[in-house]
Amino acid sequence: MSDPETVSESEVERVTVKPTPFWKGDAKLWFIQLEAQFNLGKITSDTTKYHYVVSAIDTSVLQQIADFVTNPPAVNQYEGIKQRLISTFSDSQERQLRKLLSEIDLGDKKPSQLLNEMKRLGDSAVSDELLKTLWLQRLPTHVQSVLATSSDPIQNLAQMADKIVEIQHMFSVCTVATPTEDMSAAILQLAKEVAALKAAYNTEIKPRRSRSRPQTPDRSSKDSYHKPLVYAFTQKSDKATPRQARHLDYTSQFTTVINHISGKSNVVADTLSRISEIDTPTPIDYQTLRESQDVDYELQTLLAQPDSTALKLKLFTVPGSEKQIYCDDSNRRIRPFIPKTSRYELFKHFHGMAHPGIKANIKLLTDRFVWPGINKDVSRRTRACINCQRSKVQRHTQPPITEIGTSDERFAVINIDLIGPLPPSNGFTYCLTCIDRYTSWTEAIPLTDITAESVAKALYSGWISRFGTPLKIITDQGRQFESSLFASLSTLMGFRRARCTPYHPATNGKIERWHRTLKTAIKAHASPNWTEHLPTVLLGLRTVIRDDTPVSASEMVYGSTIRLPGEFFQDSWDNSKQISQMSVQRQLHIMTTGRYLYPKISTPAPTFLSEETQNEKLI
């Protein structure tokens, strides 16, 4: 261990440096004080100064300069954190000028203190003449009148202002106003109110939590028509049970004077003790119910034909009155028969308490009342409750999804959509796809972009110019199809646009399913230049036999199959003519009935000829 005397002087002096906590209000003054401590401690290392600053600031300040502290620069760390803290917590020059012009005032400060604060805010941006004018404006009037004629420096004027203000405070005299008649009356009234409050406080009952008898119990009189309660406080304590003695002891802490009054004089307490005698209102007016039963057609029919119903309707006397109404007792419970005129009011009363569901409403009412079709009636009224529909989202009536019917005409209804982005090929990255709902004829038009203008041009040049204007076009809710340009195109061309349900691609399922077939066929070519193989893919897909009808899309459009590249044989003239006529008949039958006609060919199998010998006779 080294000798303490051998420790260097700088190391000893560094230990004595203890910076004060960081001042958010004035960062510049804090650094001036800190640098003075560094000079006294002979600390010159930039890294040491930086660590002293970091150790002196709290966590809230560190969070605001966390980016600097976590990644400090390699050099000039102290200057960097100094400038960062000053710029973060010091007011801008505009803010300081605003304080100098409008926010600062004399208050309890001395004039010299006010001047120093204004100098600090003005810094070097405000001249001495302007600073003097602003400072004089904030001084009292009598001080301004003395200093206005002086041409001394502003610091000397500040000292003079301090002496003037100090002398003014020494000789200030406070006068006492003579009370007027109104003031005397107000004081007298306040004295009366204080006396009344004091008297009310002294007579107020103050319950205590302790069961022991207080030394000075508050005694107040209570009225009761229970005469034995009065006697309980006057009898000997040994006659009471332990529980009675405990209760009487607790009651005596609040009052021991109980006056007996008769029940006739104590109307409120007597009424509450006989609550069963109070005539509470009911949702059913039995007198009105009896009159409605006499004229109700359904009840009279059931009474005339008792065998037509399982209800056992009899007259029962209403408890507490002499009125008789028809009730059913078939399930060992008396249920009044409710005529048609009173059913809605009764339902509204019971349903309006908690707005239960249909099953709970039916159970609630069928257990207490009866009328023909009560289950159906309660169910219908519960569904029609406006408050239930507003509050119970799951009870809202949801309309069914509209179905798109089948088309019976070529190119009358088409589905269109967009696919992409695809791998770039000759500048094209998207495709506009179209399919006819009747013939399933498909088109795929390459696009460089999918703006509304590009889509409208491709639809017109790739489909409308070849097959005419359709009656209806089914699309999703893409921005291209929702644009005003597409709406103008539909108005100009004369077709109607149908929107698909959002997030429900099955609505546009015919084109969506064909997208998978198209992408699979393009991908099978294993070439990035998909635009070069797209015509070949479309030719193949148009000649493929469909699953729903044993014909291809080309047969549905042209009435016969189209010749594919690589075919070396064709049908003989006679058979091809016969088959062509049958194809025309088949196509006409499909167009008129919408169903495929399966022909029965009674001729022999067709004979195929080569192109070189098609005009020669076979031997």
Task: Please provide a brief summary of the model.
By secondary structure, this protein is α/β, with parallel strands linked by helices. It has helices at residues 9-15, 27-40, 46-56, 59-64, 66-70, 77-89, 93-103, 111-122, 128-137, 141-147, 154-170, 181-202, 227-232, 242-252, 267-273, 286-295, 297-304, 343-354, 358-366, 374-383, 386-391, 452-467, 479-482, 484-493, 509-524, 530-542, 553-558, 573-593, and strands at 221-224, 257-260, 313-317, 324-328, 335-336, 413-419, 430-436, 442-447, 472-475, 496-499, 569-571, 608-610. The chain has a five-stranded mixed beta sheet with strand order 8-7-6-9-10, with helices on both faces. Strands 3-4-5 form a three-stranded antiparallel beta sheet. A two-stranded parallel sheet has the order 1-2.
